[in-house]
Amino acid sequence: MTAVMVTGGMGVIGSLISRELVAQGTRTIVFGRHEDRTLIKRIADSIQIITGNILDLQHLLRIIQTNKVQRIIHAAACLSQQAQKEPFNGFQINVDGTVNVLEAARLTGIERVVFASSKAVYQRPTGKHAHPACEPITEDYPKEPDTVYGASKLFGEYMGLNYLKIYGLDFVALRFGSTYSYGKLTGRHGFAGIPAMIENAARGEPTRIPHRGDRKDDMVYSKDAARAAVLACFADNPRSRIYHIGTGKGTSLSDLAAVLKKCFPKAVIEFGQGPDASDRGRHFIFDIRRAQVELGYKPQYDLEAGVRDYIAEMTEAGG
Amino acid sequence: MTAVMVTGGMGVIGSLISRELVAQGTRTIVFGRHEDRTLIKRIADSIQIITGNILDLQHLLRIIQTNKVQRIIHAAACLSQQAQKEPFNGFQINVDGTVNVLEAARLTGIERVVFASSKAVYQRPTGKHAHPACEPITEDYPKEPDTVYGASKLFGEYMGLNYLKIYGLDFVALRFGSTYSYGKLTGRHGFAGIPAMIENAARGEPTRIPHRGDRKDDMVYSKDAARAAVLACFADNPRSRIYHIGTGKGTSLSDLAAVLKKCFPKAVIEFGQGPDASDRGRHFIFDIRRAQVELGYKPQYDLEAGVRDYIAEMTEAGG
Fold it and tell me: Which residue, among B191, B178, B202, B192, has the nearest Cα to B311 in the 3D structure?
């Protein structure tokens, strides 16, 4: 039985990765800064939970060796808003932490490292890729990160590709689109428009957004992202190494409002006429064909299925 | 009198930066891993030499405060070939070291940080920018570093721009073209075609290069690069923040051979017919107009002047 360690494995996406691994019968080691079972309650008895600081290379080495870890899915990160508030700290977690994982992996002969990267490696789309045409971008779209988080993720990809080239370390990076799932609002990911809309609707509270809701983005349910990470962890020949993980389709906040009104007929969701916040945002539709062909990835949640599952998770958690 | 600290200030380019600062009457603090006066003999009595590890943030803070440093030119780096051999070590010096400088600078209220970046942030040129047309590239040319060194330099730029945006830290980065000057062969920079050709010719030894010599590159004499760093350190409004430092002109190894035969009529320099090594290389002509306009930069050494000064420096050093 393969042993996989998930860094950040108690976080929003990390916990879903851990759950997917357990569901597939994989021996799962969950590594996190603090023990927080909120999102991994249902698998807590089936996994090994280890707390530690990813900046401590010696500790990482010991954990890997003691637990006979064979593959690593590296999902631990300081999130974007936090990294922009505390760039030095964000840099350490996202860059030093990632390079520590790579170095520990090559020193211990780890079979593969999967790295959770992000759409933040890109700047705003332009031309035909921007609103309203929103043509999907491929992984070759120019990278111009303008945040600490985005620059850190891009550097993590570059270092991984160099570890592959220099040492033969098997490295794969997934650039996630705009993921949504239960947990993002509960202290972990700061303000997030999509979760706020969903949770307000579920609780019978109104949502009023000052801008228009017509900008399309690639909103992917986190369970699809998590399954992609597990596919990437075991794929036979991930030769392109860098993959977009999204839906390949454009979804707007107005689309989300329509789905929420279907689920909760009394939901009050109002948009204003101000410029869409996404005028300044990083709204892309991802071309996901590379992941489909090489990883066997196929999103299983359309928007309505994602929303309904979100609410089921929220209800189960007592949220 | 402004106090400027030069990290890597005893290295090949760093020593020329230190000399230029001293020549301008600036109080100069030279920071290096080891004390090595080889390239700073003539200014050793005019500067403060401090040894230390750039990875030690607390030490950096103490040096800055004790010496009342006001501006920093950050030229310390693990060079490309070395970083590719030892990626973890190269990463620490180039990335952790640079972020330490930025963090120390913002904590101590440093007035400006100038960062020595590199053409290594780019991959090989394509289309009209490639051989034989070799149209100059601007600073907006797509960045696709494929080495640890190049990725580290690019990340340093991104972090600097974020420190500017977040904290207002005054940050400028210079992307140097293919610099050449005395010192690169003496154990510091590994094999370097240009210095080898020059030093062989000066010593009456032949140079035989297996490939053609017709690929053009932007070869800039390191004293021009060093003066650019000092200009960038004091420029009134370096609003573009990122600048190409080269000559703006294409120079081939055949051009260099012609100059060397003029300086040393008996020089033997032979080229073969194999594919030019630069087919795989990063040979660019830099558009330098941004540096000319915003920094007042103007290269003062054409190829012959650079070669003659190189030989004068070599002779003085007893090389």
Answer: B202
CA distance B276 to B35: 39
Residue type, A284: F
Per DSSP, the three-state class of A30 is: strand
Q: How far are the Cα atoms of A93, A137, A216, B210, B212 from residue B277, in angstroms, in the given order?
A: 39, 34, 46, 9, 8
Q: Which of B58, B102, B147, B158 to mutate to test the interface with A (most CBs of A within 10 A)?
A: B158
- Among residues A260, A246, A249, A247, the alpha carbon closest in space to that of A209 is found at A260
At A36-55, the pLDDT tens digits run: 999 999 999 999 999 999 99
CB atoms A166 and B84 under 8 Å: yes
Which two structure tokens, joined as six digits, stand for A78?
């300081």
Q: Which residues of B touch A173 (CB under 8 A)?
A: none
Q: What is the pLDDT of residues A162-219, one digit of tens each?
A: 999 999 999 999 999 999 999 876 544 444 578 889 999 999 999 988 888 888 999 9
Task: Name every residue whose Cβ is closer than 8 Å to that of residue A158 and which is 6 or more positions away in sequence.
Answer: B145, B148, B151, B154, B155
Nearest to B87 among A91, A148, A163 (CB): A163
ipTM for the whole complex: 0.94
Mutate to test the interface with B, among A85, A158, A165, A241 (most CBs of B within 10 A): A158
Q: Which residues of chain A make contact with B142, given a CB cutoff of 8 A?
A: 142
A87·B162 Cβ contact <8 A: yes
Distance CA B314, CA B139 (A): 33
Burial class (CB in 10 A: 0-12, 13-18, 19+), A213: buried
- Shortest distance, CA A110 to any CA of chain B (angstroms): 17
